[in-house]
Amino acid sequence: MSESRPRWFTAHGEGHADWYVERFRRMAAEGADLAGEARLVDALLPRGARVLDAGCGPGRVGGELHARGHAVVGVDVDPALIAAAMIDHPGPRYVVADLAALELPDEPFDVAVLAGNVLVFVTPGSERRVIERVAAHVRPGGLVVTGFATDREYGLPAFDADCAAAGLVCEHRFATWDLRPWRDDAAWAVTVLRVPA
User: Smallest Cα–Cα separation from 55: which of 36, 82, 22?
Assistant: First the structure.
């Protein structure tokens, strides 16, 4: 883990991971549609693709992609979230690791997905390094797909600059995971980036 703590820990305090896990378990039990991000990512991929679920939390997105036939590795810095992922969404391989220092021995991935506000919860100042390390695990011509709220400390201008510095090319931006058109006042930004071939 980096010297300073991720916003995930500092913004919410102790016990937040338990609250977060229970929140999504309750939503699943109530029949909420929790697969929107995975549907979008699945549509971008060939069958049996290799997926890096970066900042996987309790495994919701990676678990759904695994169920759709993809080979998934989920990574999160919070051991409590990884433990919940292994229980609630078995199938993917899960790893406890800091995305800013990510070094996986796996073959390159076809896509890396950072859903659920991952980039606005990492250690302040580490965002560019996180993008670089995640992108380094994606094959040439592969994709990095992100989604986060636009009203946070880390905003789109910084994100776009960090992606450009990492050599990623922005191909699409949407206002939601169900592909509503981008607009400047959107509360959410979903971005599809390409690793140059």
Answer: 82
